[in-house]
Specification:
By secondary structure, this protein is of the alpha+beta class. It contains 6 helices and 8 strands, in the order αααββαββαββββα. It binds a DNA duplex through α3, β1, β2 and β5.
Length: about 230
DNA sequence: GAGTGATCATAA
DNA sequence: TTATGATCACTC
């Protein structure tokens, strides 16, 4: 039986990180969890972020909820993405919280969204619902940096959405806005509230929101990588 | 069935 | 409460 070593240490180089990631390809989540003596949930009704956290541990990401890339020294963000039999994404991809206050002067170039996804290590996983979590298989991880075209696609949506926020129209933003980047609620439940800019520039309370990459966006980079 | 809005676990 | 990791599940 092949031995896999998964140090809980931050990788020192991109090459080392990629080398670790490549050894994961072909493993099921169950196999990977067993190696690390971690229990696999029967479903993700409760532990929705389990897969991402498993991969973080296996690749040596710095744990925690810090607002920076998973591999800060390498400038690389880790994202697992569930795919179907055609390598098409099954879910949108959360990027970061949407700023709802003090948004004047924020530019795309220095935005949270752009910063977060400058370099992403995508770990596609067969996430078909009919496959139990422990049998879901990890596909080939790959490193991605937005092309100038992709950067532009996201910038257009981001600017439209941020303008609405700055003008006090957060309550009018729905997930239907944005062709590639959307804004949706992001909270423990509907009771969570945060400050935002209201219609007349006053402070209001609203549900916290997050930026998400639509499947139309992530499917492009998956197709590019897999040569589809 | 797809997609939007809602929700779950955890850390600090 | 904000932020990390996301998927669930109801409505259209």
């Amino acid at each position: 039986m092949k031995q896999y070593i998964f140090p809980n240490q931050e990788p020192k180089s991109t090459a080392q990180l990629m080398s670790r990631a490549e050894t994961l390809a072909g493993l099921t989540l169950g196999e990977l969890a067993d190696i690390n003596k971690i229990k696999v949930p029967v479903n993700f009704k409760r532990e929705k972020g389990w897969t991402g956290q498993l991969l973080e541990r296996c690749l040596g990401a710095t744990a925690g909820s810090k607002s920076e890339q998973d591999f800060a020294k390498l400038g690389i963000e880790l994202k697992t993405i569930p795919i179907d039999e055609n390598c098409f994404p099954l879910e949108t991809t959360y990027v970061c919280y949407a700023p709802l206050l003090d948004v004047a002067g924020i530019e795309w170039r220095s935005s949270n969204v752009r910063n977060k996804i400058q370099q992403v290590l995508w770990v596609p996983i067969d996430g078909r619902r009919e496959i139990p979590p422990r049998d879901r298989r990890i596909a080939t991880p790959f490193l991605w940096t937005p092309s100038s075209e992709q950067d532009h696609q996201l910038r257009m949506d981001w600017e439209e959405l941020m303008e609405m926020i700055s003008l006090g129209n957060i309550e009018n933003i729905t997930a239907k806005h944005g062709q590639y980047l959307q804004i949706r609620p992001k909270a423990a439940d509907g009771s969570a509230l945060t400050d935002a800019i209201g219609k007349n520039g006053q402070k209001i309370q609203t549900r916290p929101r997050g930026f998400y990459l639509r499947k139309e966006f992530t499917s492009q980079l998956l197709a590019d990588y897999f040569g589809l």
